[in-house]
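In this section we walk through a basic example: taking a raw amino acid sequence and producing a predicted 3D structure, encoded as discrete structure tokens. The instruction is simple. Fold the sequence below.
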Amino acid sequence: MALKTYPYNPTRGIKTDEEVVLYLQAFLEENGIRGLQSAIRNIAESDIPGSGLAVKLKAQGEVTADNFESILDSLGLKLSVQMAA
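The resulting token sequence is shown next.
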């Protein structure tokens, strides 16, 4: 019997809006702004039941520099900068 494989889903296990925000924060801290854009795309492509943020991200379409701020605004999120440790 052949081994059955599935594509990796980085959003697997995320169930709440709070977990979505933690996921986005982790991507930003580890990978910078490009990582955050990738994380937003992952959330938008996922099917997270009960997450209003995921639904709003799907409605926004592709993340670009031009719509990035409006995406964060529509989600009720803001980007902040702090001194590195």
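Looking at the output, two observations stand out. The CA atoms of residues 44 and 58 lie 5 Å apart. The mean pLDDT is 80. In the next section we compare this with other chains.
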